[in-house]
C-alpha cells in the first residue's frame, strides 16, 4: 500500500515524512521474493522460472569484503519490488501505486555506493527521502502553488516553473557522469537524467494528491528526445500517441537498472553489438565481437586504447572498478540481479550468466542459461542479431559443460580468486 493510500491528507509535510520513515525494509534473501513470483503468475514476462541463487553478496563475503550495507539496501529494494502487483506495475508513475519508487531508487544508489566505497556508514536513505519530501511540500507553500481552482494548464505551468526554474533542476545526458542516474546525487546537484527528473516530478504530484489539492487526472509526458524535460498534462486532453510517452512504475525501474547495467558492463568493445555478444566475444578474442559484420580488427585499435584496455582488464580481474568506459563488474552484477528480481525479461537471466562465466561461477552460469532457454521455449529469433545471440548461448553452454566435466571441478570455489580483499573500487 502506498503512502497516499494509507494516509489521509496531512496538514504538514512532517506527516508524510513520518509515513515514509516508518517503512523498514524487511529482511530477505537475495532470491526473488514470493510477491515477485506472484507478479509473474499474474502476467510477468519471465515465465515464472525459479532462478538459482544470486551470487554477488555471497562471493564478496567469501573474499572478505564487507557487504552488510549492500545487503540492507538490497533488502529495501526487494521489499518495494514485492509490493508491485500486475495493476500497480502497469500504472503510470503519475498515479504512483504500490511500490515506493523513490525509496527503491535510493536503495539502488545505496547498494551501489556500498559496493564501490570503503565507508563504514551507509548512504542515508531516510535523509534523502526527507529532502525529497521537503522539495515536494515546498511546491504547496510559499507562493509557489497556483491559484485556487486554476485550470490544469496553469497548474502545470506553476509546477514546471517551480522545479526547472525556481529550484534549478536540469537534464543532463551522457554516460560520462553516472551521478545523473542516482537519485541522491540528482537531489544534491539538481542535475540528472530524464528518468530521475520524471521520478521527482511524480513525487511532487503524489504530495499534491495527498494534500487533496489535485482535482483532475494528471499524467506525465516522458520525453524520448535528448533535450526534453518531463512535463505534466491533463489526462482528459490526451492525444493520439501519448501512450508511448507514459512511464509506468515497472518500466521506470527497468529503465533505471538497464541504464546502469549498460553503463557498467565490463565488455563494451563494440557499441553496435549487444552486451551479451560482447561478453561472449571476450572469451575468444578479448576486445572484439561475433559475426562477420561485427568483427573488429585489432589493427584499427590504437596502441593507447589497447594499453588502456589491458590495464582495465587487469583491474577487472581483481574486481576493481576502473571507470565508466571500461565498466564495473560489481555494479554490473548488482544491476543484473535487481533486474532478475523484477522478473521483467528472461534475457536478463542470459546476460547475468555471461557475467557469472567471467567471474568463474560456472555452475551458477549453467543454471541461469538453462533457466533462460526454458523461458524462451517456443520463441524463434526474429533477426540476425537474435540468431547470433542464440548461437552464442549454445556455444557458451557447451563450453561450460566441458569445464564442469573436468575432474574435481566441484571442489573449487571461484570467489577468492576473483574478488580480493585488497581490491580498491576506484
UniProtKB/TrEMBL annotation:
<dbReference type="Pfam" id="PF13369">
    <property type="entry name" value="Transglut_core2"/>
</dbReference>
<feature type="domain" description="Protein SirB1 N-terminal">
    <location>
        <begin position="150"/>
        <end position="208"/>
    </location>
</feature>
<dbReference type="InterPro" id="IPR032698">
    <property type="entry name" value="SirB1_N"/>
</dbReference>
<feature type="compositionally biased region" description="Low complexity">
    <location>
        <begin position="1"/>
        <end position="16"/>
    </location>
</feature>
<protein>
    <recommendedName>
        <fullName>Protein SirB1 N-terminal domain-containing protein</fullName>
    </recommendedName>
</protein>
<feature type="compositionally biased region" description="Low complexity">
    <location>
        <begin position="25"/>
        <end position="43"/>
    </location>
</feature>
<feature type="region of interest" description="Disordered">
    <location>
        <begin position="1"/>
        <end position="45"/>
    </location>
</feature>
Amino acid at each position: 500500500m502506498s503512502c497516499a493510500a494509507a494516509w489521509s491528507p496531512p496538514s504538514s509535510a512532517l506527516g508524510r515524512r513520518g509515513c515514509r520513515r516508518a517503512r523498514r525494509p524487511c529482511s530477505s534473501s537475495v532470491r526473488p521474493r514470493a510477491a515477485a513470483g506472484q507478479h509473474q503468475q499474474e502476467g510477468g514476462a519471465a515465465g515464472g522460472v525459479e532462478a538459482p541463487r544470486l551470487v554477488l553478496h555471497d562471493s564478496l563475503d567469501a573474499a572478505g569484503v564487507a557487504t552488510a550495507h549492500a545487503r540492507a539496501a538490497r533488502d529495501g529494494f526487494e521489499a518495494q519490488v514485492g509490493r508491485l502487483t500486475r495493476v500497480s506495475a502497469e500504472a503510470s508513475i503519475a498515479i504512483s501505486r504500490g511500490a515506493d519508487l523513490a525509496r527503491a531508487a535510493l536503495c539502488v544508489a545505496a547498494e551501489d555506493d556500498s559496493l564501490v566505497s570503503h565507508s563504514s556508514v551507509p548512504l542515508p536513505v531516510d535523509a534523502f527521502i526527507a529532502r525529497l519530501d521537503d522539495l515536494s511540500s515546498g511546491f504547496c507553500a510559499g507562493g509557489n502553488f497556483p491559484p485556487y481552482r486554476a485550470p490544469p494548464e496553469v497548474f502545470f505551468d506553476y509546477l514546471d516553473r517551480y522545479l526547472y526554474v525556481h529550484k534549478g533542476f536540469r537534464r543532463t545526458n551522457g554516460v560520462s557522469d553516472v551521478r545523473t542516474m542516482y537519485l541522491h546525487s540528482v537531489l544534491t546537484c539538481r542535475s540528472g537524467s530524464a528518468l530521475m527528473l520524471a521520478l521527482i516530478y511524480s513525487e511532487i504530484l503524489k504530495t499534491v494528491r495527498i494534500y487533496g489539492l489535485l482535482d483532475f487526472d494528471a499524467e506525465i509526458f516522458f520525453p524520448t528526445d535528448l533535450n526534453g524535460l518531463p512535463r505534466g498534462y491533463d489526462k482528459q486532453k490526451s492525444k493520439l500517441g501519448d501512450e508511448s510517452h507514459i512511464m509506468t512504475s515497472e518500466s521506470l525501474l527497468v529503465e533505471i537498472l538497464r541504464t546502469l547495467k549498460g553503463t557498467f558492463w565490463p565488455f563494451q568493445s563494440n557499441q553496435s553489438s549487444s552486451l551479451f555478444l560482447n561478453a561472449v566475444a571476450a572469451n575468444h578474442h578479448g576486445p572484439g565481437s561475433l559475426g562477420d559484420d561485427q568483427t573488429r580488427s585489432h589493427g584499427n585499435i590504437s596502441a593507447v586504447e589497447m594499453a588502456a584496455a589491458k590495464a582495465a582488464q587487469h583491474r577487472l580481474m581483481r574486481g576493481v572498478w576502473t571507470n565508466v568506459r571500461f565498466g564495473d563488474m560489481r555494479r554490473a552484477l548488482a544491476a543484473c540481479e535487481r533486474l532478475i528480481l523484477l522478473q521483467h525479461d528472461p534475457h536478463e537471466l542470459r546476460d547475468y550468466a555471461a557475467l557469472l562465466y567471467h567471474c568463474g561461477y560456472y555452475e551458477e552460469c549453467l543454471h541461469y542459461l538453462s533457466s533462460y532457454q526454458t523461458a524462451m521455449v517456443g520463441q524463434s529469433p526474429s533477426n540476425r542479431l537474435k540468431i547470433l545471440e542464440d548461437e552464442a548461448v549454445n556455444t557458451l553452454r557447451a563450453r561450460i559443460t566441458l569445464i564442469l566435466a573436468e575432474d574435481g571441478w566441484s571442489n573449487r570455489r571461484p570467489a577468492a580468486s576473483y574478488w580480493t580483499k585488497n581490491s580498491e573500487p576506484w
